[in-house]
Amino acid sequence: MGNFDVWIWFVVLVPLAALAGWVTGRRGGERHRDSQVSKLSTTYFRGLNYLLNEQPDKAIELFLHIAELDKDTFETQVALGHLFRRRGEVDRAIRLHQALVQRPDLNDAQKVQALLALGEDYMRSGLLDRAETVFSDLARIDQRAPQALRHLISIYQAERDWEKAIENASRYEAATAEPMGKLVAQFECELADRQRSAGEIDAARAAIARAYAADSTSVRAGISEGRIEAEAGNPAGAVRAFERAARHDPDYLPVILPALLESYGKVGERTGARAFLAEMSEHYRGISPVLALTKMVEAEEGVGAARRYLGQQLKDRPSVRGEAALIDLTLAENADAEATLHDLKHITDQLLVRNPSYRCNRCGFGARSHHWQCPSCKEWGTVKPLLNYAVV
């Protein structure tokens, strides 16, 4: 069976199975009750048979019929609303769950369940303002309503209201003990980027400090701090921040290197730059630090030394981009192979154009530029440079 059938099993069959078992298990009572028992049981098992034989449309109609026969059972009506939403009939789900919320006979747990279902209906229909109201009310009713808080976090992410996203992430962590520091750090960095763009440097620095407090190993906080300090005319501070970020996660080195090398140049610390790049070459198997070192060798020792250094490195870490750089150096040193090398360079460039430079390690989304939040699966911090295609 597919995902649809699994969903039906958990959301509809389980409560309906309980209903059928409860009704079937009753003994005695009026004759019409016995008739209803038989009708519900027969219909239920017919629906189950349809489902097992991969006939979901027929199963749906029968389960809807069961729910209609038992309008007073809360669990059945909640399941029916979920089914409507699953089928894309969100308006019907909203009306049903609104009616449930207004029922005076619900206990507290049922009230929470009905409000959650209604809020999810609103989210599915894109009515985020109504969903926010429902989930906020629910969080006030039950301070330990993690589902409501989780939904509020999603809403505030979509609205880019980072202060409220941070607030509700903190509430969620307090309610569930699930660590939310990495997510909070991303939100604080979003705030810092916004404030940096607005020229609010002190506020941006404060947001970065809070990001570090939430996640001391945040690579993004280090990159954002480095950019803030570089723009503020503090290249030494930028170097420290960029180096810190690279050491926390060398996979982000290609994102960090351009601004880091620029800051090194402003500080005038070539020895420190070469030492750091050599260190990163030991920890990062991509070609970026090697290419950066090759440029430094070329500037200080000449094209021949740079070509020999790069050629040796490519034996241990073959790379299309490294090959392209080696071709450039060979062209500069030996004009006799010019025609052949130009052809090879053209082929290499075409290979590079057709490949993404970044990929999400959660869903596999490929991109030519870096995103902190994956455009496909919406996870944070999962889009990283590919080893062989990331640019310096």
Describe, in plain words, how this protein is organized in 3D.
There is one protein chain. With 392 residues, the chain is an all-alpha fold. Among the domains are: 3-171, Tetratricopeptide repeat domain (Serine Threonine Protein Phosphatase 5, Tetratricopeptide repeat, Alpha Horseshoe); 358-387, no CATH class. The chain has 19 helices and three strands. The protein has helices at residues 3-25, 31-52, 56-69, 74-86, 90-101, 108-125, 128-141, 146-158, 162-176, 181-197, 201-214, 219-231, 235-248, 253-267, 270-283, 288-301, 303-316, 320-333, 338-353; strands at 358-360, 366-367, 383-385. It has a three-stranded antiparallel sheet. A hairpin with a 5-residue loop joins strand 1 (358-360) and strand 2. Helix 4 (74-86) packs antiparallel against helix 5 (90-101), helix 6 packs antiparallel against helix 7 and helix 13 packs antiparallel against helix 14 (253-267). The protein is elongated and about 85 Å long. It starts with a helix and ends in a 7-residue tail after the last strand.
